[in-house]
Amino acid sequence: MLKKNMLLLFLSVVFIIGCTSNKDTEEIILLFTNDEHGWMEPTDKTDGAAGLVNLWKENENFIKDDKFLILSGGDITVGPAISSWQKGKSMIEVMNEMHYDAVAVGNHEFDFDIDELKKRIGEAKFSFLAANMKQKSTGKVPEFITPYIIRDVKGVKVGIIGLSNSGTSHGTSPQYVKDFEFTSYESTLSEYVPQMKNEGAELLIVLGHIPGVEMRELVPKAKELGISIICGGHYHEQITEIVDGVVIIESGDHMKNYVKVEIQFDKTTKKVVKMSPTLIKNISSNPDQRITSIVSKWREPIDKELSEVIGFTDTVVHHRKKRMYKMITDSWISAFPNTDVSILNIGGIRHFIPQGIITLETIVNVLPLQNTLISFDMLGQDLLNLLKNSGAERLVFGGVNIKDGFKLSDGKAILVDSIYKVLTVDYLYYRDDYSFQKTDENPKITSTNYREPLIDWIKSLNTTSTKPLNSFIQ
Questions:
Q1: Cβ within 8 Å of residue 311, ≥6 positions away
Q2: What pLDDT is recorded for position 393?
Q3: Which of 19, 232, 264, 361 has its Cα between 20 and 30 A from that of 137?
Q4: Under 8 Å CB-to-CB from 370, ≥6 apart: which residues?
Q5: Residue 115 burial (C-beta neighbours within 10 Å; 0-12, 13-18, 19+)
Q6: Euclidean distance between CA atoms 66 and 429, whole angstroms
Q7: How far apart are CA 56 and CA 66, in angstroms?
Q8: DSSP structure string for 370-389
Q9: Residue 391: what pLDDT?
């Protein structure tokens, strides 16, 4: 009898402890994406924004303002025409409806200039975070950017601090960010995390537009400051790791996946009990109808304004192949025939030309940026130096034959003491790590978007199914 009573007492204690543990521990679910780049529509590889929301509802039992945090690692726009043509307005509306809480300020958030970014921030129901973005004149975070937020999730104060990529001044048009500097990640965290803790933050998350290698390097500082999770972006990686007790995550890109982090937080000890990151593919059989209707609304003006047929190809023109590079850069020289050499960065080409009919929308998808062509004079020696380093610089050239001893297309050698007329995009011309501005301080700004010559050139060919575009390019 005594043994039976002792057993009942033991079980009662276990039951009480178990109840106390469950009561004091809250589950928080972080749902994360990065580098969405405006890919809100379904593709043959993913089910877009509507599919993602449906998965959140069906797989995760997502309910707004419950136990969920919805975060993005930045670069939410600049991709297909449905986003870029509207300068990101469409993506803001979609992400508002998806109930994002915050996004890191990625380098491509600046691509439509600061005024447009301010407009998008004003339209957003979520926060744009970048604690390391400082005005050069004051050393402070600009008023239109938020350094961090503190959210109450199931009674837990979650502090989320933003980090823009430290290389942002070279990752967007330099003239758009000339008034700002992007300070080191570690010094920024050391500056703001104590402040966040003083304001009651208990669970700390870094929301950064930073790649895996930088997230891993940041782990010791995160551990020192009590940061539990580092979210990343920029390199379009898929990462779900726990490094020395710190979770680091990245979902890939284009809404193809999302990362779920299940967090168990003890409200008594104010510590994380457990964290489990998982990458989940965006494959859904029942897209969310509310998101679908918003996307359809933004599809209508694109179909109306960019549906003009300008050509045909019976094979795919890949965006990372030499014939795409040559076609674009040569089209510039065709439009500006006094040009000797044209120069483009590979990153300015964002998509391939699919097999079939080519429309204006097709080319906006390929070249979606606001890049303007600039003409300037360049000394032959400087041009040769640039050509020799083109692989490392990820630049492509029109008007030259690199394989044939760095000669012009007409076979003439590039002379070190001669002056050559060069055409490039403003993004490259204004970068301070090139010598273009020093070479010619008075360039000619053409006011021509970098996609326009390609559109005109394709139109001039009058391509059809019997005379496709691919028969004109090598």
A1: 357, 358, 458, 459, 461, 463, 469
A2: 66
A3: 232
A4: 111, 112, 113, 173, 449
A5: exposed
A6: 48
A7: 13
A8: --EEEEEEEEHHHHHHHHHT
A9: 64
Euclidean distance between CA atoms 342 and 423, whole angstroms: 5
Q: What is the pLDDT of residue 15?
A: 37
Output the six-digit token pair for 160: 């989320």
pTM: 0.92
Whole-number Å distance between alpha carbons of 281 and 266: 30
Report d(CA 430, CA 112) in Å as an integer: 16
Nearest to 279 by CA among 306, 305, 261: 261
Helix (H, G, I), strand (E, B) or coil at 165: coil
Is residue 163 within 8 Å of residue 131, measured between CB atoms? Answer: yes
For residues 405 and 412, give the distance between their C-alpha atoms in angstroms, rounded to a whole number.
10
Q: Region 354-372: what's the mean pLDDT?
A: 97
pLDDT for residue 460 is more than 50: yes
Q: State both tokens at 284.
A: 């859904």
| Pair 211, 234: CB distance under 8 Å | yes
d(C-alpha 128, C-alpha 442), whole Å = 36
